[in-house]
Here is the input.
Amino acid sequence: MKSNVGTIDRIIRYLAGAAILAAGYYYKSWWGLIGFLPLLTATIRFCPAYLPFGLSTCKTKPDSPR
Here is the structure.
């Protein structure tokens, strides 16, 4: 698996995941467990939803001259 989640995207995913978990806890709803999904994708730095579209928020390294 190649990383396709960049730093800013990763921070947003951590915040969103924590907010969803907190809302689920506050409202005593099992739907809050969906918050683990953005936390997981931020932790492993890979989002399978980006694959079909060829998206990546990682910075690309410039090619070195030969």
Observations:
- The radius of gyration is 15 Å.
